[in-house]
Amino acid sequence: MRRKFYGLILPGFILSFLAGVVVGFVIFFFKLAIDYILKLNNLIYHFLNNYIYFIPVTIIILLMVSIMQGKIVKKIPIVKGGGIPTSEGIVRGSINFNPLLSGIFTAIFSFLSYIIGMPLGSEGPSVAIGTSLSRMVSKICPSYDEAYKGYIMTSGAAAAFAVATGTIISGVIFALEEIHRRFSPMIILVSFQAVIAGSIVAKLLSNFFGVSYKMFNLISYNDLEIYHYLIFIPFSIIIGILAWSFNHLVKYVERLLDTKMKKVKTWQKIFVAYLCVIIVGLFLPTILNGGHALIDGLFENKYSIIIILLTFILKIIMLVYISQSGVTGGMYIPILTIGALAGALFVKIFKLDDSLVLFICLGMSAFMGTAIGCPLSALVFACEALSGIDHILAFAIVIIVSYFIGRLLNISHLYDIVLERKLHNDYAKKDFMVIQTSVIVSEKSFAVGKQTRDLLFNANVILTQIRRSDKDYAKMDNFGDKIIKPGDEITFIIQTYNICDTKTHLEAFVGKQKDFSYDILQQ
After folding, report:
1. Which of 436, 439, 454, 507 has a beta carbon 3.0–4.6 Å from 186's, enabling a disulfide?
2. Axis-axis angle for helices 332-349, 292-299 (nearest 10)
3. What are the phi and psi torsion angles at 500 (to 5°)?
4. pLDDT tens track of the chain, all 523 residues?
5. Inter-axis angle of helices 499-510 and 145-165, to 10 degrees?
6. Could you tell me the CA-to-CA distances from 218 to 221, 331, 342 in Å, in that order?
7. Do 372 and 178 form a contact (C-beta atoms < 8 A)?
8. Rounded distance between C-alpha atoms, residue 472 and residue 420, angstroms
9. Phi, psi angles (nearest 5°) of residue 446
10. From CA 126, how far away is CA 18, in angstroms rounded?
């Protein structure tokens, strides 16, 4: 019973549920604060349009803010950029961070981005804050912290995503498909517990404050005709090529900033981003902020084809640079916005006005699924957030064809691009070894009774084989379905930057080792 409590009940139910409650509470008020900040942003731009002689004063203020932010980002680099790829790196054990400082400054700099009108979203920072909060929750049990942290941070990130997007199942799928990229009963368990807890808290608070919990209001579609299904294929191909082009452009700008513009200071990059948004935003307000209001306007057919085209082009150009400049903000809603604009343009060009809402939603889900590389998440999101369950076949066709085109073009997925850059900047100058080591599973260790797929080792730890104590041969673990038993000898191949940290990490799962020996494979 003790093993069940510490190995399953405590991390799988109690701590994950607690993390969900905390994350749901904080993220709700984070979203509520952003709603008020966006109203302030509208007032600021209205004021600057009426009193243009205040623009130089605004630019001077932004210069000072950029210098201050640049200094903080230099000391806490984890707070810059989108929160989802950073959280993925943290949960997988690839990135170390201070959860308190990360959560606080992510929130502060996110608010700053929304006041200025940066074309970034709140979903990424929400996930980053959720990861920070759940990391602090996992420290409630210090003796089990190293083993628990991956599960609890997964639950916090899933809950934050669910509350930020007003979904439930999408939060769980996000943890499986995007964060860990594998299906595991333990990941499903902790994610569901936290998502349910966070969603209950957020819905109760939404009712109390009289605000909408959902990301989008109820969306209605016209009936589909046979000819629509013929149009889906060319539309899917266009979205797939667009996603590949966008990600390719992100990689190019990233490479440009890291090579030819390497000597440009962070505060200077941030200042240029702020300056561009202020100037362009005064003439074309549709480029401001993440794009939620813009998507609502597209649903209502508010914009002409010229405005949609200009916004589409400028959104892409500005998002590609700003997301790499050091400014804090997510790319999730901007990705949806680009897909929505592409869908609206397609409708305008080919005179499909009766299907405007459908193609906007198809564009959002397909572009997200292809650019980020999560077609299942995109389909579930379409059903939950976009009310697309009655047209699930249409969404499935467009998402999978678009995703296939992206794979055909060897697309590099967006969050992978961003995370690889972060990891390169963190570890490029550090020495590492690749080692092979074997450990013996203790009788009362955390790993006993679990399938190997349920053990969230760090990303650089690869389990290669298991030798039973009563067998004289080892077995490969190709499918992650082997159940760990006391006395098992497990062999790992590990890329390590610190042998002591690696030993501590393994012992958190398999128990204390009398002799920790290893062979160096690469140095």
Report:
1. 454
2. 20
3. -65, -45
4. 666 776 778 888 899 999 999 999 999 999 999 999 999 999 999 999 898 889 999 999 999 999 999 999 888 888 887 788 889 989 988 888 899 999 999 999 999 999 999 999 889 999 999 999 999 999 888 777 888 899 999 999 999 999 999 999 999 999 999 898 888 889 999 999 999 999 999 999 999 998 888 888 767 787 788 888 899 999 999 999 999 999 999 999 988 888 888 888 889 999 999 999 999 888 888 888 888 889 999 999 999 999 999 999 999 999 999 988 889 888 999 999 999 999 999 999 999 888 899 999 999 999 999 999 999 999 999 999 888 888 899 999 999 999 999 999 999 999 888 888 888 777 766 778 898 999 999 988 888 888 888 898 988 888 888 988 767 666 666 667 788 899 888 999 998 888 888 899 998 998 898 888 888 888 7
5. 80
6. 10, 23, 21
7. yes
8. 41
9. -65, -35
10. 17
Identify residue 455 by its one-letter amino acid code: L
Place of tokens 């599973």: 441
Token digits of residue 505: 């990490």
Question: What one-character-per-residue DSSP string does 328-386 give?
Answer: B-BSHHHHHHHHHHHHHHHHHHTT-GGGHHHHHHHHHHHHHIIIII-HHHHHHHHHHTS
Among 360, 32, 19, 60, residue whose Cα is nearest residue 189: 19
Can you read off the two tokens belonging to residue 442? Answer: 């203790």
Q: How far is residue 420's CA from residue 56's CA, in Å, rounded to a whole number?
A: 38
b/e per residue, 299-338, with b = 16+ CB within 10 A? beeebeeeebbbbbebbbebbbbbbbbbbbbbbbbbbbbb
- Tokens of residue 355, six digits: 């299907």
Question: In this structure, are residues 236 and 328 in contact, taking their beta carbons and an 8 Å threshold?
Answer: no
Q: Transcribe 44-80 into DSSP letters.
A: HHHHHHH-GGGHHHHHHHHHHHHHHHHHHHHH-GGGS
HEC letters along 146-208:
HHHHHHHHHHHHHHHHHHHHCCCHHHHHHHHHHHHCCCCHHHHHHHHHHHHHHHHHHHHHHHH
- pTM score of the predicted model: 0.93
CB atoms within 10 A of CB 521: 12
